[in-house]
Amino acid sequence: MASVNDYIAVLGKNNSLYLGHIGDEYLSAYTIDTGVKYGPIMADLNRDDVYETIVTTDSEIFIYQPDGTFEKVYLPDVSVGGPAAADIDSDGYPELIQCTKTCIYALKHGGIPVAGFPFYLPPGDSSEYITSPPVIADLNNDGTPDIAFATSNMRLVSFTPSGSLTPGFPITLSGTVVRPPAVFKRARPDSIAIACITTDGMIAVCDLETVIDDDLYVWPMWKGGPELNSALLNSKIASKVQTTAPFEAFCYPNPITGETGTFRITPSGATDCTITVYTADGLKVFERYIPEHDIIPGLPREEKMDVSRLASGLYIAKIMTRQKTVYYKLGVLK
């Protein structure tokens, strides 16, 4: 179960997610017909004070709104447990952090990958794989959250937000760990340690010999923290909400080899946006208008384009916002 105030989400054994409020006569049920399910957790991914509910299956992440509408994000590998939530890039917005067997994904609102992700295991043993969901806390007192998890080689691995190994990691374990580790304060004031339990029932504890700010215990244990509410509250996010970013606009893949291409636009401020695509001789073949209320300043947004009826060749995309207009060459290859 996950909860924020009186809003709750429950994952039932009958392939259903139940959403509603304490005191409701009935909770609304939504069927998820795919594989094993993990979660739910809650986070306000676009900081509109409406909390999304997130459930992970074997190969997908479902992001539900309170009215039952949802979007899916496909994972290219098998998931390892449920997601965590944290503002991993310090932009004031929470991201979803999901382990798969081979790497760590971080996703923004709309399922958009955080720049620099996914993170892959350090080179060495190609057969090593991730065995536990992540926990997130500042493990080396540098003011940024780290992502820690266990692997099949019986070690704890931790990454900084930039993708480098956290100093002091990996840590060797005495057995296999499949549950999330836990970060906690030791008896000495503000000193922290990380602990985990092995599949044969042994508890391992490692003193990290550092102190951290309480704001940087972001998702330090199973279900997010000792409250066990499986939610990241906006009040727990230390960074201010970012309202601007360097303008960026592109289409991927380029060339487009399947039936869809995806435009990613990061606006530098409040704006609406128009995407228009032309053939090389000026014939308009696609147009999409995005109103201002659907765009979050400073955050990337993605729009898909169906190219199933377009011939192979060179096309020109015009991406127009209030701050900037760019022209972008893209190819279609069938």
Automatic annotation (TrEMBL):
Q: What is this protein called?
A: Secretion system C-terminal sorting domain-containing protein
Per its UniProt record, what SUPFAM superfamilies does this chain match?
Integrin alpha N-terminal domain
Per the UniProt record, the source organism is marine sediment metagenome
Cross-referenced Pfam families: Por_Secre_tail
Listed InterPro entries: Integrin_alpha_N, Secre_tail
User: For the Secretion system C-terminal sorting domain, which residue ranges apply?
Assistant: 252-330
Q: Which residues form a coiled coil?
A: none
